[in-house]
C-alpha cells in the first residue's frame, strides 16, 4: 500500500515538462563578395564606362580631322610651292625637285594623319592630282616612276613619326631639309621641332633631351645637303627618256652634295640662329606647362 504523494513529486513533474531555454538566434551569413565575372554580368554592379569610351572616340576623331587639316595646309608649302603653279609638278631639268617634293609631301601627310586610309588617300591622291593637272606626258616615264617611288618612301618615312615626340621632331627636321620649295616656313617649324624633345624632359633624362635636339639639327643639315646635291645634279642632266635619267642624275649629284651641299647646310644652320631663340622660349614654356600639370595631378590625388 503506497503512501501519500509527497509535495516534491509535482514539482519534479512540472520541472520535467518545462520548455528548454531558447537558443540565441544565429547571425545571418554574410553575402559572398561579388566576383569580377558576377559584377560584369550584373548591370547594377557594372560601372558605366560609356562616357569614357565616347570621350576617347571623340578625341581620336578630333586628332584624325586635325591631322587631315594640317596635312592639307602643309602639303603644298613643303612640296613644290614657289617652283611651279599651284597643284603642278616640276618638269624638265627640275626632276630632282619633283622627286624630293613627292617625298616630303607624302612624309608630311603620313606624319600628321594617323588613320591608315585617309593617310594613303591624301599621300597618293594629292601627287596624282598634281600630275594630272600638269599633264602626264610632261614628265618622262622614268620621272613618273621616281615620283611614285618617292611618294612611297615618304609614306614609310612619316608613318612612324608619331611614335614619340623626339622621333616626330627628327622627322620634321629631315623633311624641312629635304623640301625643295624655296619658302620661309622652315624657320617656325624648325623651332617647333627643336622644342618637341622637351615634352618628355626630366631632371634624370637630360642627356636624351640634348641628344634629341642635336639629332633634329643633324637631320635638318643632312636634308639640306642631300637636297642641294640632288637638285644640282639632276639640273645638269640632259632630258632623257630612259633609266639613264636616274643613273646620270645620281652620279652628277655626288660632287654637289660634297661641295655645295655642305656649304648650304652650314648656311642654313647659321640662318636659323634667330629661330633657336624661339625654340628655347618654346622649350621653357613646355617644361613649365608639364610642371603645372604635374602639380595639378598631385593636388587632385591628395
TrEMBL record:
Q: Please verify whether the record's keywords include Transmembrane helix.
A: yes
Q: Do the record's keywords include Iron?
A: no
Low complexity: compositionally biased ranges: 1-36
Spans through the membrane: 61-80, 92-114, 120-139, 144-163, 183-199, 206-226, 275-293
Q: Where is this region: Disordered?
A: 1-51
Q: Which UniProt keywords apply?
A: Membrane, Transmembrane, Transmembrane helix
Where along the chain is composition biased (Basic and acidic residues)? 39-51
Q: What is this protein called?
A: Uncharacterized protein
